[in-house]
Each structure stands twice: as structure tokens, then as C-alpha cells.
From TrEMBL:
Residues 103-326 form the NR LBD domain. Keywords: DNA-binding, Metal-binding, Nucleus, Receptor, Transcription, Transcription regulation, Zinc, Zinc-finger. The lineage of its organism: Eukaryota, Metazoa, Ecdysozoa, Nematoda, Chromadorea. InterPro entries: NHR-like_dom_sf, Nucl_hrmn_rcpt_lig-bd, Znf_hrmn_rcpt, Znf_NHR/GATA. Belongs to the nuclear hormone receptor family. It comes from the Eukaryota. The keyword Thylakoid does not apply. This is Nuclear receptor domain-containing protein. PANTHER family: NR LBD DOMAIN-CONTAINING PROTEIN-RELATED, NUCLEAR HORMONE RECEPTOR FAMILY-RELATED.
Amino acid sequence: MEATSQNRGPCPVCSSMDRTRRHFGIIACTACAAFFRRSFGQQYLCNAEKKCIIMHDRKFFCRACRYSSCVKAGMRRDLVRKQKNNPRHPASLETQLPRNLPEMLSKFSKILNIHHDELLKYYVDGVEDTIAQKQNDNVMNALQIKSIVELHKISEMENNVVLDDCLNCPGVDVLEQDDVEVLLKYFKFVNIWVYSALASSSTCLEQFPEQTGDNSNQLFDFLHQVRSTLGSSLVRLNLNIFEYAAFKSFCIWNLKFFGTSTAMKIVAEEHHIGITWALRKYYKESTNMTEVEIAARIGDITLQLLTVSDIFHDMIKLYHQVGISF
């Protein structure tokens, strides 16, 4: 995947200098690229004279003029169409989905522009993609690292991987650039540490490599914390792919550390409502669980967010101590 660079020049749509890379045929920022992708097939109306100024430091955009600016800058609609027509759902996943879904899904998020069932499928796709990517690239589990150098490598590698995940996330197109930057941090945290805890949940949690380096105590204390808290809980919960996909969404949109805008809080609430509804629907149609059992199961899953918040806080502290930017 192409690495990002701050030397590519400003985004031709909104003039942002942050995280510009190639999207849909041009060099643009992630926020404008996400907006362009999510706007495929949509029709917007300008309430002015179709001459609205699009700048990254403005809190509100005219969507019609922003989309027009994307097209004028050279973003190609056919590249969006190719992505839309290239389903990310493996055949094996489709066979696992409940077959008795009604033709017209009853729950739809206007803010995210997606049905709640499809929102859960988006996260399931992301989990399967993450598993495949880490296996194909032979990526080391973060809980098995032996040094600060290896932690640096894993962190740098994930910087490039999470961009597309964040870009494709429903609701990103309505967020400001600062919010997108924050969301990238949460995606990165989940892809490294929450996934590693899940992947290590069936392995021995008490074996640690020999400590080397001045910061080894802090590093291995943190690894032990992740394994003994979240790792142990995931062993007990034994989440299937739908449950872990929902848990991933809850972790990403927990929004407990960095300051965020009102718009991002609204989008986060839409994700929480949509995923919770879809997960309950999955339980009702694919299991024999009662309403009480469903509520207890979802409660057990969401209760882990307290542990995740503690791990995120201590990860930030560790990264600062060892000189890793985040």
C-alpha cells in the first residue's frame, strides 16, 4: 500500500495539507476522498449559487459544491464504481449470514446512510480483511514482540493499513479533518492491541521474552496488562466473528481519550445504536437465546470497554515514554 507523505502538496478540494495520498486518481486528503466515495449515487443541492468555498478549516461544507470540487479536481467516478462492484464479502461469510432477513430492512441510519444490518456486515468484512492481511503479510502479534524496535515496526506498518479502513467507514464523510485524524488513532489502536488480544486468547498468557533495553520493564508490564485483562476476558467470552466485529465497533467509537466535535459524537452514537440493534437481530435469528440472555451477553461484551479504555490510556503513556508517535 502506498505510504502517506506530507510533501505531496495540499488537497486540491479543501487545501488541507494533512494525510494527502492518492485517492480515486488524484492526490487528496482522506476526508475529501471519504466524502467522494460515500457520495457515489447521491444527489446534492446547493442552497447558494454553486460557488461555495470549500476549506478544510471550516466546520460546515456545502456538499453539492464539495462534490463538484472533487470532480473538477480529477476524482474519477469509475474508480468508485469499481470498488462498489468488487464485493468484500467472501462466499464463506455470506453463507454464515441469516437467510431469513426481510426484503426491506426495518432499521436505517440517515446520518450513516446505511442499514443497521449492513453496518454490522461492514465491520465483519473489516475483521476478515484484517485476519487475511496479517496472515498473508506474516505480521507479528503485538503481544509477542521482544523489543521497542519491534513495537516501532508494528506501529509504522499499521499507519498505512488503517487509512483505507478509516476512509471506508460509514459516516466519515460528515466529519471534519481533525475528527478523521482522531478516528485513525482509534482504528490503529484496535487493529494492533485489541486484535492481538483476540488472536492470543487461545495461547499461553504467561510466557514473556527476556527483557532487553532501558524501556523493557514498561513494555513488558504493558504486554502483561493486555494479556491478563482483555486477553483473559476474551478467552472467557469466546466471541464469534459477528460478536468481535460488534466489539471492534464499540472500541473504535468509545471516544474516551481525545477531544471530539459534536458531529463525531453524533456519528459515534449512530454506530453504537446501529451495531447494537444488528447484533440483537443476529442473536434472535441465528441463536436460541432469550431476550434476557441476549441482554446479558451484550452487557458482558460492552463491559470490556472499561478495560479497553484503561489499555488505551496506558498505551499512550508507553508510546510517549519510548518515543513512538501516535
